[in-house]
Design brief:
Elements lengths: L1 H26 L25 E2 L9 E5 L3 E2 L4 H4 L4 H5 L6 H4 L2 H6 L5 E3 L4 E3 L1 E5 L17 E11 L3 E10 L1 E6 L2 E6 L8 E2 L3 E5 L2 E11 L5 E6 L1 H6 L1 E3 L6 H7 L11 H11 L1
Length: 274
Amino acid sequence: MKIRYLLLLVIFTFSIILSGMNFVYAQGKVNVQDGPIPEAEWMVKVAGAELSEDHSGVDTWITKWYGLDGNYINNGGFGASAPKDLIELGTDGKLTQLTLSTVVGINKTKDVDVNWPDNGGAREWTVFEIDPANPHNMDRGGPVDNYDMYAICVIDAPKAMKSVMSPAHDDHAQIWINGEKWYNNPTWTGAAQQVDFNIEVDLKKGANVVLFRCGEGGGHGYLNLHFDDDTHDAVDIYPDKSDDQASFLKEVAGVLPVEPTDKLTTIWADIKRK
């Protein structure tokens, strides 16, 4: 009888270890905390040892995004373009990257388009889909070198929660959530589904706007993002079934607050930047 109990204990312990291993694989090791990034450090590379985690087995990569129907091209290399607010440049200040990562910014896209006369021309807002396994998923039929791409999603959370986001990118990636910058890394991650940093972020109850920007130099060009399993199980992410601007705005109409509580904060943050 004692041997049977001992055997059951061993099996139970081994199961717990395996479950823990699967959890670590699915979640990834959290190696970036204490965000968001202070404004004075917005362009400083994220600190910490690169993990080089293979997340190709993850099935929660975000594939549908809201953004512009074309990239910012001829950027002079991502090192030259990364410090510039290309959204502010393309809208004559009507929108900024900071504002675009808020509910206020999403609402403004109803009436504000982007125009980069020497870097791609007029751009309109739409929904597009990418393949996480494709190391060129940012090209979208345009130039394959020297461009920047913006991608937006809205995460509807049932409550305020801690979450872990895992980006893969080539080359320079910057990520904002709800008007705050959480990630800056000028170094490519090595493969389309390879993750170097798992970043703990704060999600508020309701709509959370994620803005992912990536600047490409040459060679591969990819932008990918997923969150931890608990987050994906708890939230709804948009775009979902929409395929253009009108259907996206309709899809999130019930999620976005009519009068965002962060409106004054966002406007004040923009004023301080100028």
